[in-house]
Amino acid sequence: MDNQIFDHKKIVLAVTGSIAVYKAVDLASKLTQAGALVDVVMSESAQRFVTPLTFQSVTGRPVHTDMWQEQTHVQHVRLGEQADLMVVAPATAHTISRLAQGAADNMVTLTALTARC
User: Fold this and answer.
1) Is the pLDDT of residue 72 over 60?
2) In CA terms, which of 7, 14, 26, 114 is 20 to 30 Å from 60?
3) DSSP helix/strand/coil, 113
C-alpha cells in the first residue's frame, strides 16, 4: 500500500461476524503499516471469530465493541464524525440489511449511521 495515501488518515474498520473476519485482521495490519490510524468497531458476532485483543495488538488502539460500556464520550458519534473513511469488512448480509433499514442496534450500525465520510 502507498504510505502517502493513508498517512495520518482516520479509518474506521467495522467488523461483522463472518468466517472471513481473519481477513479484516490482515487489512487492519496493512492499513496501520501504511500510516493510517485504524479504529476497529466489532459486532458481537464478530467477536466469536476473533477477539478484540487481536485487533488491538495489530492497530495499537482500543477496540470498540459495546455501545453501553464506553468512556464519558459517545464513541460511535466521535468515530463516525472524525473518520476519513469507513470500511465494513466483512459485511454480512444481516449487517447490510440492518444498515439499509436504518437500524442502529450495535456499535457497527451506530457508527456507520453517524459516519460523515
Assistant:
1) no
2) 114
3) helix
What would the grid cell of residue 54 be?
Answer: 487481536
Tell me which residue range forms the domain holding 25.
Answer: 3-114
- Check: CB of residue 105 under 8 Å from CB of residue 76: no
Nearest to 32 by CA among 59, 62, 5, 8: 59
Query: Which DSSP category does 98 fall into?
Result: H
Burial pattern 20-29, b for ≥16 Cβ within 10 A else e, equals ebeebbebbb
Identify which has the larger pLDDT, 34 or 69. Answer: 34
DSSP for 62-92 reads -EE--TTS--SS-HHHHHHHH-SEEEESS--
Q: How many domains is the chain built from?
A: 1
List of E strands, 16-77: 37-42, 63-64
Greater pLDDT, 95 or 68: 95
Could you give the CA distance from residue 30 to residue 72 in angstroms, rounded to a whole number? 30
The domain that contains 60 carries what CATH number? 3.40.50.1950
